[in-house]
Amino acid sequence: MSGIDALFQPIAIGAIAAPNRVLMAPLTRNRAQADGTPKAMAVDYYRQRASAGLIVTEGAQISPQGKGYIDTPGIHAPEHVAAWRKVTDAVHEAGGRIVLQLWHVGRISHVSLQPDGAAPVAPSAIRAKSQTFTPNGFEDVSAPRALRTDEIPGLIADFAEAARNARAAGFDGIEIHAANGYLLDQFLREGLNRRADGYGGSAEARIRLVIEVAEAVAGAIGADRVGVRVSPFGRFNDIPAEGAEETFAALYRRLAPMGLAYLHVVEQFPGTTPDAAETDALARLRALWTGVYIANGEFDADRAADWIARGRSDAVSFGRPYIASPDLPVRFRLGAALNAPDQATFYGGDERGYTDYPALERAA
Ligand SMILES: Cc1cc2nc3c(=O)[nH]c(=O)nc-3n(C[C@H](O)[C@H](O)[C@H](O)COP(=O)(O)O)c2cc1C
User: Fold this and answer.
1) Which active-site residues does the annotation give?
2) What is the number of domains present in the chain?
3) Can you tell me the distance from the alpha carbon of 351 to that of 221, in angstroms, rounded to the nearest whole number?
4) Residue 336: which CATH number?
């Protein structure tokens, strides 16, 4: 096996048989209806990308409270399930596999997006220096309130119910979004979680919510259909990364024996260069994971194939390349050029910059 062939070895990702290792990363596109129901154009968008080894959808809020941006989809109402069903049917008919990313934004929200104009929730009442997109354009996120301990069982139940809804909508599984500074990531962080109720303090206490969510979701739909996404050294959404290696080592050690489908790690962020100490720490953390490991961030075909050949990762997910090149695997196989992504149409809008990027035969 040489070169990019490593990308085209089939792999079992838990219960999911993926024919290649060129996976689609979750990508929020802000094109759902205001009530969180995906629009018909999402059916075309995901169908066009069905040749991915596995599609991870954009984040879908597990509850009205979990919403943090305008026009993101949900997975907590019958209308959501019915609309997503059309997406999963189209992907499966086209020969693909698709899991839904379950999202609760925590403090990265705005009162105008919350039920009854309430404050967003967080592990502790610490406001992010961050912005979100609301009906009024970009605005600073609102000051959050700390979740009460008696609200945590309901939050965990929302994740489990969302996972059941995802299966009812035909998804092959779900991904728990514990990355990029949203609610579960907020709980993991020493600098953001000052709770004294057993969900904050030591690393063991800060990882507890993610573990309990993973257990509940695995209990609802089976561990082999559940993935977890993390970003140990991410700083997006005003995340303090201090103490990250210790925290994530504890998390990986607790998650590893659960028999989950995969761990998905954002290792590098758009436009950043890797820091040597963090690169070493990510490799040490990777060695703790015994299941399927998916790496993400600023990869191209050659680097992805090299990582897989060396066992640094089992598969690689691609974000922006899949926005612009719906047929990414065949382009990698042929060494063909990729389409250029148009950043102006990443978030919100219509079919332009969404379903009108040409596939190879039409691009020629
Ligand atoms: C437009 C856009 C939307 C994104 N939405 C999500 C999301 O919903 N959930 C998530 O975990 N990451 C999200 N990300 C991060 C990507 O999944 C990925 O980690 C990042 O783009 C780096 O990968 P890349 O270099 O292959 O693009 C988003 C990134 C972009 C550019």
Assistant:
1) 182
2) 1
3) 33
4) 3.20.20.70
Q: What percent of the chain has pLDDT over 70?
A: 99
Domain interval for residue 125: 3-363
Protein residues whose CB sits closer than 6 Å to any atom of ligand 1: 25-28, 58-59, 101, 177, 179-180, 229, 266, 270, 296-299, 318-321, 346
Q: What is the pLDDT of residues 148-197, one digit of tens each?
A: 999 999 999 999 999 999 999 999 999 999 999 999 999 999 999 999 99
Q: Which of 22, 24, 28, 71 to mutate to test the pocket of ligand 1 (most atoms within 8 A of CB)?
A: 28
Label residue 271 by pLDDT band (50, 70, 90).
confident
**Sign for the pseudo-dihedral over CA of 231, 321, 306, 310:** positive
| Adjacent-strand bridge partners of 227 | 175, 262
Model's pTM, two decimal places? 0.98
Distance 26 CA to ligand 1 centre (A): 6
**Which residue intervals of 231-359 are DSSP H helices?**
244-255, 276-286, 301-309, 320-324, 328-334
